[in-house]
Amino acid sequence: xxxxxxxxxxxxxxxxxxxxxxxxxxxxxxxxxxxxxxxxxxxxxxxxxxxxxxxxxxxxxxxxxxxxxxxxxxxxxxxxxxxxxxxxxxxxxxxxxxxxxxxxxxxxxxxxxxxxxxxxxxxxxxxxxxxxxxxxxxxxxxxxxxxxxxxxxxxxxxxxxxxxxxxxxxxxxxxxxxxxxxxxxxxxxxxxxxxxxxxxxxxxxxxxxxxxxxxxxxxxxxxxxxxxxxxxxxxxxxxxxxxxxxxxxxxxxxxxxxxxxxxxxxxxxxxxxxxxxxxxxxxxxxxxxxxxxxxxxxxxxxxxxxxxxxxxxxxxxxxxxxxxxxxxxxxxxxxxxxxxxxxxxxxxxxxxx
Length: 353
Fold this sequence. Notes:
There is one protein chain. With about 350 residues, the protein is an alpha/beta fold. About 15% of the residues lie in helices and about 40% in strands. The chain is built from five helices and 32 strands. The N and C termini lie far apart (about 85 Å).
């Protein structure tokens, strides 16, 4: 074969091999057969109450049994449609008297109560728990998941492996570990040394917080003059200074005591807020954020590496819920967040300094 023809044939074969993987793309560009948007199943869209609402529907299968046990003040054992064993209590205070869940033991059945549910201590609950009233758990318990139509109170040193949903209030005593999401219809309160991942409620408190003090410090949002400032180095804002407009800092940002920014703030390095700083917009840093005591942050708070929130700080407001998120969050006692607090790796409540 002619050498030139051989080289030409080799180049043609190489071109075909290169273009062959692109053939489906060319066909789709020409025919456009897959132009419909992807369907998103809304029930899996990340709603904080999804798991609790789904479990409530599941429990509706034994609602008649719950009602009968409540009317007669008795307990009953049975199975749910999927074959899961279930223990139904007409009176929640009967729980410690049931041999299956004696203190220090294990309850291997789904537990459902028509009234307030009183649970013993040092007990493992590997199945979900439902109460038509409140759930009061003893110390050092381990739960898979808990749903209560009213309050949930966990004793000190308890653990939750999956989720908790309380219709009104959720309280975790000291040293509790909440490994997934917790939601409540009114309030979440975590005491010192509690660890958490995702919290969602109209109001989230760490430690003891005076309701009057919390509401007094929540001010309305301020507008800004539409100016966007860019600073290419480290920046310090003086104590008491007022800055109107959005601020972007390429370096480290330090905001002095009682300074106020009527706009959003973003920086590429660490950000430190002094005491009583107020920011009306979003606070974002690509590194670590340290929030001083008694700050007021109206918008979302996002730190890409870590976040420390000191005592007395308020994030969001009752009529303006917000989101506080970072991989690791350390929050002192005495902090209030309105909305969602999400530690993607771990959050911890620590003693106020």
